[in-house]
Amino acid sequence: TYAATVLDDVLLCTGTFTLTLYDAIGKVDNLGIKQNAGRRITIKNIGTGIITIDGVGSQTIDGSTTTPIADQYALLTLCSDGANWHIIAETVSTYKVLGKALVMGF
What mean pLDDT is predicted for residues 45-62? Predict the structure, then answer.
């Protein structure tokens, strides 16, 4: 397992393991502003394993407590709303060769 920190912007992952996100809330200042609201993190699977992304505690990722990145070279970019995480970009590297045509699915 790996526990992400606020210093992680881009994580290149290989193997099969769980990556736990940092707190989507963070500290709250005297004006009520949540420190981690708006923070982004990009996670890319550069290997052949499955990276399971887990929100800390009961925090969710697009409404789910975990989300996998199973495809090699696929990536997710997540953004905190100050309470939970949201997927704002996703790529899946799926290529299918049909005859002489290359069909790319994203």
Answer: 97
